[in-house]
Design a protein that fits this description.
The protein has 185 residues and is of the alpha/beta class. The chain has two domains: 48 residues, no CATH class; 117 residues, Response regulator (Rossmann fold), CATH 3.40.50.2300. It has six helices and nine strands; from the N terminus they run ββββαβαβαβαβαβα. Helix 3 runs parallel beside helix 4. The chain is globular. The protein starts with 9 loop residues before the first strand and ends in a 5-residue tail after the last helix.
């Protein structure tokens, strides 16, 4: 068995994500917060038992967030980092998808979005959300770390501005503080 990444309270099997459930037919699953690749029947049985224990003890996430970034690898990296907080994570690849997600599946507790994306930027999505009366905290991230951009997103109502490359531990702390209501104003 080999460990790849962690995600508490989830079990993944047969290519499908099932919160608090385990179904293994493909030989790969996340069980007990560890991705395992079962290479033998005994490994598969052990992994299935671990997943069953996770499913039995799981209450599931109560807080929901969205990660929006046009770069799939960046988006996945952020999702994996935030998964440790035991939150329900939704994804969007641009600002238009982000707004659609907010309208159709909201409300969300936090939105983490890149500033520069095609179709609609994260900044435009923030402005549209605020114009619609949506007060969900936005954490804006960008590879462009000029002070003027940080001020601009703050003026538009973002809770935080973080420069890329992201310090994932810092991002987790910022998200956790906002979720706990302990983030500085």
């Amino acid at each position: 068995m080999s460990t790849a990444w962690t995600c508490p309270r989830f079990a993944i099997g047969a290519g499908r994500v099932k919160m608090c459930a385990a179904s293994v037919t493909c030989g790969t699953l996340i069980a007990g917060a560890t991705l395992v690749r079962a290479t033998t029947t005994a490994d598969l049985a052990e992994a299935q038992a671990d997943a069953d224990r996770v499913a039995t003890n799981c209450r599931g996430p109560s807080q929901r967030l969205v990660v929006a970034d046009d770069e799939p690898l960046e988006r996945e990296l952020v999702c994996r980092a935030l998964c440790r907080l035991t939150v329900d994570i939704h994804q969007a690849s641009n600002g238009a998808e982000l707004l659609q997600l907010i309208r159709c599946r909201g409300p969300f507790d936090i939105i983490v979005t890149d500033v520069s994306m095609p179709r609609m930027s994260g900044l435009q999505a923030l402005e549209a959300a605020r114009a619609a009366g949506i007060q969900t905290p936005f954490i804006m991230v960008s590879a462009f770390s000029e002070a003027s951009l940080g001020r601009q997103v703050t003026v538009c109502g973002a809770a935080q501005f973080l420069a890329k490359p992201l310090d994932l531990a810092n991002l987790r702390q910022v998200v956790a503080a906002i979720l706990a209501g302990t983030a500085p104003p």
